[in-house]
C-alpha cells in the first residue's frame, strides 16, 4: 500500500525522531524529559530544581521528548500512517493546527486528573491520539441508526470515544505499578480529534471552493 505524500507529517516525524536520537546519543534523555516534559505540579509553583522550558510551552515540547526505542518507534509509525491520511484530507496547515491543539488538550486532560503530579508527561501520544480520533471519524463507517445524519454522527463520536477510553483504561491497568501511562492525555487527545475534525473539514472545503 502506497501512503499519500504529506509534507507536514514527514517534517514532524523527522524532527521528533531527530530530537530523540540526539538526546539518546548524548545520554540526556532523563534531563530532557524534565526540561521539556509537561509537569502538572509546575502550574502550582513546584520546581524540579532543573532549569526547564517555560511551563506554557511544555505541552508542545513534551511531544519531542520520548523514552526508549519502542516508545519513539511506535509513536512515529502511528504518526506517519494516520498523519498522512488526515493531512491529505484537511491540508498541511490545518493538520499542524490540529496536532498542536491535540498536544495542549491532552496535557489539559492529564492535568485535570493529576493536577499535583511531579512526574513529567512526555511523548507525542496525546497529539497522535488526536490525529487517530480524526482518522477514525474520516475513514470510519458512520452508523445508520437515525434518519438524521447529525444524530448518526453524534452516535459515532460517542461510540468511538467510549471504545477508545475503555481500551486506554484497560491498557493502564495492565501496566506495571512503576510505569505511568498518560491515560487521561490519550483519552483527551482522542476526543479532541473526534470533535474538531468535522468543523475543520467543513472550513477547509468552504475556503477551498470559495476561491472559485
From TrEMBL:
InterPro entries named among the record's database cross-references: Peptidase_S54_rhomboid_dom, Rhomboid-like_sf, Rhomboid_protease_S54
Family statement: Belongs to the peptidase S54 family.
Protein name per its UniProtKB record: Rhomboid family protein
Main subcellular location of this protein, as a coarse class: membrane
Domain (Peptidase S54 rhomboid): residue spans on this chain: 58-199
A GO molecular-function descriptor: serine-type endopeptidase activity
Topological relation to the membrane, as annotated: Multi-pass membrane protein
Compartments, as annotated in UniProt: Membrane
Gene3D superfamilies: Rhomboid-like
Keywords from the named record: Hydrolase, Membrane, Transmembrane, Transmembrane helix
Pfam families: Rhomboid
Transmembrane segments: 57-83, 95-114, 120-138, 150-173, 179-201
GO annotations of cellular component type: membrane
Amino acid at each position: 500500500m502506497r501512503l499519500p505524500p504529506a509534507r507536514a507529517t514527514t517534517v514532524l516525524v523527522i524532527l521528533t525522531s531527530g530530537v530523540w536520537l540526539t538526546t539518546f546519543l548524548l545520554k540526556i534523555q532523563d534531563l530532557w524529559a524534565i526540561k521539556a516534559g509537561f509537569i502538572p505540579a509546575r502550574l502550582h509553583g513546584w520546581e524540579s530544581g532543573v532549569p526547564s522550558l517555560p511551563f506554557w510551552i511544555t505541552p508542545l515540547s513534551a511531544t519531542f521528548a520520548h523514552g526508549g526505542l519502542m516508545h519513539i518507534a511506535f509513536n512515529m509509525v502511528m504518526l506517519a500512517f494516520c498523519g498522512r491520511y488526515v493531512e491529505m484530507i484537511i491540508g498541511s496547515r490545518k493538520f499542524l493546527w490540529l496536532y498542536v491543539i491535540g498536544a495542549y488538550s491532552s496535557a489539559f486532560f492529564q492535568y485535570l486528573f493529576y493536577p499535583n503530579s511531579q512526574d513529567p508527561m512526555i511523548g507525542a501520544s496525546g497529539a497522535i491520539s488526536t490525529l487517530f480520533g480524526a482518522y477514525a471519524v474520516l475513514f470510519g463507517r458512520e452508523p445508520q441508526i437515525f434518519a438524521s445524519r447529525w444524530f448518526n454522527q453524534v452516535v459515532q463520536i460517542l461510540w468511538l470515544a467510549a471504545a477508545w477510553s475503555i481500551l486506554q483504561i484497560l491498557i493502564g491497568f495492565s501496566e506495571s505499578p512503576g510505569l505511568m501511562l498518560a491515560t487521561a492525555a490519550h483519552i483527551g487527545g482522542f476526543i479532541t480529534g473526534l470533535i474538531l475534525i468535522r468543523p475543520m473539514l467543513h472550513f477547509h472545503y468552504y475556503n477551498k471552493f470559495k476561491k472559485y
